[in-house]
Amino acid sequence: GDSVTQMEGPVTLSEEAFLTINCTYTATGYPSLFWYVQYPGEGLQLLLKATKADDKGSNKGFEATYRKETTSFHLEKGSVQVSDSAVYFCALSENDYKLSFGAGTTVTVRA
Amino acid sequence: GAVVSQHPSWVICKSGTSVKIECRSLDFQATTMFWYRQFPKQSLMLMATSNEGSKATYEQGVEKDKFLINHASLTLSTLTVTSAHPEDSSFYICSARDQAVNTGELFFGEGSRLTVL
Question: Do B43 and A99 touch (CB under 8 A)?
């Protein structure tokens, strides 16, 4: 079945550092890939998505590229801020509504 | 953006009692909502798909009689954990899709933490 494996946390960074969270997936078809973010006390929010190979999703300075050859969708941000402290979830969907999630990576950015 | 609200945010109950968790779409209508369960440091696991006006569709391994789902209106789905036991303690999260917008984006509630003593 479908599954998502993402980098274990927690990750602690200083402001303006480079952030990478690795995500790889296993799927039978051609899934859409997502990154969701959960800020403290809030529900999950869609951060970015990519629906086919070589697509790049981007939002709020974050980027992730759908790599079919390596079955990966790594999340990157060049310069993080304290406000980026959150839990990040990688997810896939063979259709648009049923999602398979990774375990989540907690990121803490220190001033 | 669209807002999904869950209530209660956290609940503590005694073993053997039943607990109801509500999931509301506040500013949109949702014919379909999803219920997830999350254990500490683990993935969100899809439990069931809640369909307005019809029976919920449960994922393999999820007990229908244990986790009762009712989706009686286009803005409300409820999850009732019946005869709760300590192993049912978990974080329960719902999500919903705005049926008026064809982006496929899901909106998530804040989650409800259940602790069964």
Answer: no
Mutate which: B21, B39, B43, vs A, most A CBs within 10 A:
B43
How many Å separate Cα A108 from the centre of its chain?
15
Q: Within an 8 Å CB–CB cutoff, is residue A70 touching chain B?
A: no
What separation in angstroms does the CA of B22 have from each of A102, A105, B77? 25, 27, 6
Quote the CA–CA distance of A52 and B22 in Å, as a whole number: 35
CA distances to A31, A99, B117 from A92, in Å? 6, 6, 35
Q: What are B3-34's pLDDT values in tens digits? A: 899 999 999 999 999 999 999 999 899 988 99
The DSSP-derived string for B21-37 is EEEEESSS--SEEEEEE
Q: Under an 8 A CB cutoff, do B44 and A97 touch?
A: no
Dihedral (C-alpha) B49, B52, B53, B55: value to the nearest 10 degrees?
10
Asked if the peptide bond before residue B8 counts as cis, ω within 30 degrees of 0, the response is: yes
Rounded to a whole number of angstroms, the CA Rg of chain B reads 14
Q: Are A55 and A63 in contact (CB under 8 A)?
A: no
Task: Kindly report, residue by residue over B70-95, the tens digit of the pLDDT.
Answer: 998 999 999 999 999 999 999 999 99
Cα distance between residue B84 and residue B13, in whole Å: 8
Asked if A104 and A8 touch (Cβ cutoff 8 Å), the reply is no
Token pair belonging to A15 = 């402001």
The bridge status of strand B10-13 relative to strand B112-116 is parallel
